[in-house]
Amino acid sequence: MRIQHLKRTWLVVLLALNSTLNGEASRPEGAKETLQQVPKGAMPALGRPTESTDTVPLFDFDTYFLGKWTFEWSMPESPLGPAGPYTGTTVVSKVDGRFYEAVTEGEGPSGNFKVRELIAFHKENKVLARQVTDSRGFSYMQFGPVGGDLGGIYNIHFDSAPFTVNGKSVRVRHVMHLLSPLNYRVASAISVDGGPYTNLGTPWWRKNP
Asked: Quick one: CA torsion of 172, 176, 177, 179, rounded to 10 degrees?
């Protein structure tokens, strides 16, 4: 019985190995390299469960953000614009040192628009600041901390200074949930004339491979 059990075990192993080798052989040329280019999370593989004493790695802005993204945003009506779907692209590039630029070109219910962001990131202090200029006639500055956990998920909490849009005093708040190397969502809220913050939608950004 023991010999028969060992024979069955080795047969399963050989069949699995043969299937793996056949899969590698049938994979189109260059496919393996493409898979290896998919970015990984910021948390390194430890080969063991994480512990409370493990250190969360500093957020790597370059690895995560640089490149081209597409976004979708279902926005309610507000002083910033009419309600409806907003879609477009965002390209993030490095300017120099700790400075970056993000250029968004989008389309919404009132037509095309363009947003330019100048971003400053202090990695060791875990803080970000950005000056946002929108072609729809307003600009604002935001500042906020970067937080993370041992699961490799990071969050950026942006609050803006008050700014004026169409005669209204406005503040916006964005909480960016960086859920994976290829997509993140932004919980957005707006305060008008000192009132309570209300939901401004939760858009998704997805990175182009």
From this structure: 150
